[in-house]
Each structure stands twice: as C-alpha cells, then as structure tokens.
Amino acid sequence: MNSPEPIQSSELYEKHSVVHNKRIDGPFRRFKWAIMAITLTIYYVTPWLRWDRGPYAPDQAVLVDLANRRFYMFGIEIWPHEFYFVAGLLIMAGIGLFLVTSAVGRAWCGYACPQTVWTDLFQHIDRLFDGDRNARIRLDKAPWTWSKVFRRGAKWSVYLLIAFLTGGAWILYFADAPTLFRQFFAGEAAPVAYGTVAILTATTFALGGFLREQVCIYMCPWPRIQTAMLDEKSLIVTYKDWRGEPRGSVKKAQKNPGEFGDCIDCMQCVQVCPTGIDIREGPQIGCITCALCIDACDKVMKDIGRPRGLIDYATLDDCEHEAAGGEPKPVIKTLLRPRTLVYLGVWSSIGLALLFALGVRSHTDLTVSPDRNPPFMLMSDGSVRNAYTLKLRNMESRPREMEVALVGLEDAVFWTDSIGRSDAARSQTIEVPADATQPVRAYVLAPQGTEGQTFAFTLTSLDEQGESDRAETLFTAAGE
Ligand code: SF4
Ligand code: SF4
C-alpha cells in the first residue's frame, strides 16, 4: 500500500512579497487624504474635548466611565440599565455597513477601516524615509549597511511612536484624559492601563507596519461577508476589459491601428495598489476598492489622449450593458435601488426610534425589593411591619429632592433609616445625590387586621420636571 505523499509547506501558504506601492495623485487619493485626516483627528482629539455637565459629573465629552458604569457622549449619558441605546447604535453600525456595501461596495474597507487608515499612514512613512516605490525596492534588496540599519531604525521608531500614540489615545476614552495622561507618565496609572497600551502598541506596530494587506486578505472576516452581500448591482472597482483588451503599448497600437485596446500594459494600476493586486484579473477579495488604480489609469489615459474610466467604479450589470455598446448609467440610479432604500429605511427607523427614546426618557427611576426573611414583623400592638429596600435613581447631574409615597395599603405609614419612626407618614422627602442611585431602607407599618395585598411606592422629583416612577410590590400580613 502506498503511503500518502507529504504535503509541502509551500503548497499551504502563498509566499509573501512586500507591497511597495507607488505614490499617486488624483481625486480618489485626495478623498482618501481627507478621510484619513478626519478619522485620525477624531480618534486622537476626541478624548481631549470637554463638555460641561456641572460639578457632579465628569467634563470629558466622550467617556466610558467603567468605574461608575456610565457612558458619556456630549449631552447624552447612558446608564447600565439603558444598554439598549448602545445595542441600538451597534445595530445601526451593522446595518450602516450593509447599506454602504449595497450602495458603493467595499467603501468601508477602501477608505475608513482603521486597518486601511493606519496602513496608509505607515506607507507614507515608508515614502518619507525610503523614497517612492523603486527606491524602496532597491533599498529592500540592498545589503545591510550602517546607512540601511540607521534608516530602518529611524523608520521603525516612527512606526513605534505612532503605534504608542494609538494605544495611548485608546485608554484616554476610559478615564479623565488629562489626569490619566499625567498619571501614566508619572508611573501612577493602573497596571491595566500600561497593559492595554502595550498590547495596542504591539498590534498597531505589527498590523499597520508589517502585516498590512495580509490582514485584509487573510485575517479579516469582513471581505468574506461583504462578498456574500455584493450583487450584480453593487458598485465595485472594475477594469473594462472589453475596452482595454488586447493590451498593447502605444507604439504597437500606432503601428497596428484597430488591433489593440486602450490598456497599454504600463502596470501603473498594479504599482499604486496598496494590496499589490492586478485589477485587470477581475474582481477579487484583495481589492479593497480604494480606487487608487482609477486615479493611476485615468492619469495614463489623459497622458496618451484616451478617454478616462478604463478602470472605474461600475456594477457588473453596467459592465454587461456597456460591453454590449450601451451608455454608462448615471451613478444616482445605481445608488437609489430598492435594496439600498430598504437598508436606508431600516437604518433611519432605528435611528429615529433611538432619538425618540432618548428625548422622552425619564431621569428618575425606582425599584423596590421586599425583605424575604422575615417577610413581616408582628408588633406588640398587633400592627404589622414589612421592610423594603428601595433604589432611588437620579440621572440628572445635580442633587434632587424626591418624594417617596405609598399608593394603596390604606392607613399604612413608613419611615426609613434616616427618618425616624416618630416621623412616619404616607410620604417622605429624600434628597438623592446627583447622578447616583440611592439605596433606602423603608419600613412600612400597617394597622392590626390589614390583609396581605399589592400596593405601590411612587417616586416624584420635587422640581420643575416633576418626573415620576412607580413600583408595585407586596405587603405580607400575619398568618399568610
Ligand atoms: S494603468 Fe490602465 S493602461 Fe496601465 S496597465 Fe493599468 S489598466 Fe492598463
Ligand atoms: S485594485 Fe485598485 S481599488 Fe482595488 S485595492 Fe488595488 S488600487 Fe485599490
């Protein structure tokens, strides 16, 4: 019996070759510059923005306050029991990605994904230190001289600095930024802060500096999901082979008129590609639709006096239509199609529902838990006492006087740990600190003969808002 042939490692893994993409200018490149500037500014600057919430709440505009279990975003404060707002935002982000993919293909990957933005940034650092594509290829192949060691060392130090700033900025979203910044460099921050920065520095350094397009092609699941979401009506970056083929240089085309297509096989589209692919081989998972090849090819077409758009954003339907001699369709028709409109409708409905819920939500909340053991106490005069733990929540960033009252359970009165039995009444006024949940022990006393029944506590803010909440509970009587 023959034993199976051993598998060669070369059959399992494609050999990695470093992508040295060429500098290009054009409308899509400038658009990418703008998106990069906006996203990086938002990421690094946001933790330093202040937002006045009065003396009782943090003044950081965007803050995930893990210690106090709050999420602040400008004028919005989300409490743990309101996690549905965060869930709603995550659902909106997911549907937003579906919407963008359905309308303009992998635009997220090409322009705004953090991996794309940081890789783009690191590729510009490469150009700054080592020059454009050809110089970088030469340097890569050159032996390790002191000059190369120095240049590599300097470049990797800048990588490391960017990676450190990236990790450093992340932790500032979880505590008061100026305070944590001081503590971090004074060695007084929590170990978890140093650990998080170390991990994020290492991952940014590795993913943005070295792994780059391999993350998009091999590691990220999103390209696979997107491929399933694209259809023949989605915009993708396409090479119009019916126009470009057969390829031939300008000279050949001049010598043999009518025999060659518009592609002069100059390889500019491949050389500018950040993932190093050849779009002329058709749509592929490595194409992040950054459109830099469109800029490159349009420039070539302009230089040789042929119409732009040999590589362009187009749908597969448009390609068939154009290949058959039809006119290109207006982009707006491609964008406004039923599937995209359905996504837009669902996305906006969730957004409006969240805004409505945010607008009408109460800043007052009451929960009640009756004591289970013992469920009641029989007093010497025959009256019955039940004890409860109330939680009075004040979600305003100022202390508020609140009235707690009994509804039902006739002739009963209550007092608390801080309001003595001598002041027992059917309603009590309690001050609840700003932005806090105040636990209160309440002792409800009902006269002899009162039967077990359901009743309610109400909580009403004694201010111009007059917000209220109500919680039903059970009164347990003797003999039950
Ligand atoms: S840039 Fe345009 S002309 Fe040059 S190889 Fe690419 S598709 Fe052909
Ligand atoms: S093929 Fe073109 S659009 Fe796709 S990743 Fe490369 S440069 Fe960007």
Automatic annotation (TrEMBL):
Pfam families: Fer4_18, Fer4_5, FixG_C. Keywords: 4Fe-4S, Electron transport, Iron, Iron-sulfur, Membrane, Metal-binding, Transmembrane, Transmembrane helix, Transport. One of its GO terms (cellular component) is plasma membrane. Coiled coil: none annotated. One of its GO terms (molecular function) is metal ion binding. It comes from the Bacteria. Residues 251-282 form the 4Fe-4S ferredoxin-type domain. InterPro entries: 4Fe4S_Fe-S-bd, 4Fe4S_Fe_S_CS, Cyt_c_oxidase_cbb3_FixG, Electron_Trans/Redox, FixG_C, Helical_ferredxn, Ig-like_fold. The chain crosses the membrane at residues 31-49, 83-104, 156-173, 193-211, 341-360. PANTHER family: FERREDOXIN-TYPE PROTEIN NAPH. This is Cytochrome c oxidase accessory protein FixG. It comes from Altererythrobacter xiamenensis.
